[in-house]
Design goal:
With about 130 residues, this protein is α+β, with helices and mostly antiparallel strands. The chain has 3 helices and 6 strands; from the N terminus they run βααβββββα. A hairpin with a 4-residue loop joins strand 5 and strand 6. The radius of gyration is 15 Å and the shape is elongated. One of its GO terms (molecular function) is fatty acyl-CoA hydrolase activity.
């Protein structure tokens, strides 16, 4: 599990100062990327190997709005590891309150063929559940 802080900037909000719904996806993406980096994997290295993790499915529940200048915390953890997929549970917190909950399924794909491939063993070992 990893915590990733995010500050809400003006560019993240709509005219009312509330975070625009699509920007939560950016916060979640950054947190997943940092989660991989913390585990020793860089997106650049994966790209050099013609591999990428792409979002296949996302279920998101917007519970409460975030606003301009809020300091948020994105919690990311792996809850399932398949042959070619990783399922993440992610939540966005504002202080002690969960404001967004998401389950994100990412598939490992070969970028040359744009088809799912088995997650490399060195990555699988890190995420053994």
């Amino acid at each position: 599990m990893m915590n990733f802080p995010v500050r809400v900037y003006y560019e993240d909000t709509d005219a009312g100062g509330v975070v625009y719904h699509a920007n939560y996806l950016h916060f979640l993406e950054r947190a997943r990327t940092e989660f991989l980096r913390q585990q020793g994997f860089s997106q650049q290295q994966l790209l050099k190997e013609s591999l990428a993790f792409v979002v296949k499915k996302m279920d998101i529940d917007y519970k409460s709005p975030a606003r301009l200048d809020d300091l948020l915390n994105v919690i990311t953890e792996v809850i399932e590891l398949g042959k070619a997929k990783i399922v993440f549970s992610q939540s966005i917190w504002q202080e002690e309150r969960c404001i967004t909950q998401a389950t994100v399924v990412v598939a490992c794909v070969n970028l040359n063929q744009m088809k799912p491939v088995a997650i490399p063993e060195n990555i699988r070992q890190i995420f053994k559940i």
